[in-house]
Design a protein that fits this description.
Number of strands: 17
Radius of gyration: 53 Å
Strand content: 25-35%
Helix content: 25-40%
Number of helices: 7
Distance between the termini: 49 Å
Number of domains: 4
Shape: elongated
Amino acid sequence: MFETMSLQSDAGRPPTCETADCLSAPRGRRRNPPEWRTIYFGLGNSNFFRISGVRFSIFGLALAGLLAAGCAPAPTNRFQGYIEGEYVYVAAPLSGTLTRLAVARGDTVNSGQLLFELERQSEADAAAQAEKNLTQAQAQLADLKKGERPTEIESLQAQVERAQADFKLSAAELARREQLHGSEVISKEELDQARAQSEANQAQINQLTADLATAKLGGRADAIRAAEAAVESQGAALAKAKWAFDQKQQFAPTNAAIHDTLYRQGEFVVGGNPVVVMLPPENLKVRFFVPQDKLPQFKTGASVTVRPDGAAHPIQATVNYLSTQAEYTPPVIFSRETRANLVFMIEARFSPAEAAALRPGQPVDVELP
């Protein structure tokens, strides 16, 4: 099964049987050269191999070294894991036909970039109508606050001036009649008539002055408050219409890679159904499992080294989550040996720059620093 292996000594090539000493020995009793020895290594009862030579120790040491290297245990501070991504599903809250899909699977988008657009003509019409209603309500409120028109106020002002002139004339007439009554030229009845006319003219002045002030004040307080409420209501209706119009367009909330698109242009999209699936770099994380006896070595905020297969250099990640319960837990733990079955999940996140080259599902090795 195994061939005999021979190692040459420092003395050079061993003598052959062509020498006199060797030829003179009887067949079957010829001696091996004095500088050679044979060592047997048994492999059971029937299989064995043999190594010959005085330098057998060099081969044995090399073989022992290879066996030791092949059976060396893996580093105890290295754990297996994989990359996982938290996807962002972008949807519109309203239904409509997909009129524009601005991205494709595999694209990279920046924050604020247009992703898709739904049909929004009805929302545009509703916004225009709400804007006109708001303008009307605002005009009505302004009219109430202004009061009467300028020409009406001027007319009231002229009436006040005429009333003042009538009062002035009646007051002078009253003064003359009081003098004549003192001289007993006129009767008391004529004096009373003059006094009544003067008082009537004064009352008319007061009335017209109040009317003029009311005209300048505008509408009543209750009417003004009602008009103000109407303006607020129409403003809210306009804001809602504009919101509905804007929601028919969706933009990237952050820098990300487009993982997938779920609708084609021309298809009807139900409100709330995602159209674009994004994967921001900051949403990539490494998930790995550690035995329960290694768990105390990990803390939130600690740094770990991640080594993806084929990567040019390791990547640093920060531990952000330690599972609160074990995975693959036996039903009951009675002995110290069964504790070896307990593992805990740990998650660590990368910086966006480091995560750019990673992909979900990628296997990695995680090491403690």
